[in-house]
Amino acid sequence: MSGLIRVVVDTNVFYIAFYNPSSKAMRVLNYAIENKLSIFSPDTVREELSRLLISDFAFDTNEKNTIIESLPVQWVGKEFYANHMKGTDVIVHKPDRPLLACALGLRCGILTANIKHFKPARKFVTVWDINELLKELSKHEKQ
């Protein structure tokens, strides 16, 4: 495999993986577990995911913490991506702007289940939906 794909992952991808462990989103996480993909997410995704694990999946705080810590993701703090927030206002949905800032800072793409929010970001970074990224990962495996 030539060059590991690096991607900033949106909350909705993690959510889908937890909601349906046999989903394509979980396949993406498995690629990261197998060190065939590098996943990054901003601290805002970690915070949102933490809330959702408790509110929507009824995990207690200890379970939620264990899940968050076990994810194959490198969490990116605001101190890293703050310098890249300029220009992210092309994305109307403000909570998604840190994802673009991370992708710009890390020079990688974004994985989301909500392509619509990120269409304007395609001028600056690659934006994948789950199917597109799985195709790309499959191509990399064959190389």
Structure report:
The model has no long low-confidence stretch (mean pLDDT 95). Helix 1 (11-19) crosses helix 2 and helix 3 crosses helix 4. The longest helix is centred in the middle third of the chain and has 13 residues, at 43-55. By secondary structure, the protein is an alpha/beta fold. It has helices at residues 11-19, 24-33, 43-55, 61-70, 78-81, 97-106, 115-118, 130-142, and strands at 5-9, 37-42, 74-76, 109-111, 127-128. It is built from 8 helices and 5 strands; from the N terminus they run βααβααβααβαβα. Helix content is 51%, strand content 13%. It has a 5-stranded parallel sheet with strand order 3-2-1-4-5, sandwiched between helices. It is globular, with a radius of gyration of 15 Å.
List the defining traits of the structure above:
143 residues, 51% helix, alpha/beta
Given the structure, what is the number of helices? 8
> Main β-sheet, in a few words?
5 strands, parallel
Spans with pLDDT under 50 lasting ≥5 residues?
A: none
Q: What does the overall shape look like?
A: globular
What is Rg?
15 Å
Q: In order across it, which strands form the biggest sheet?
A: 3-2-1-4-5
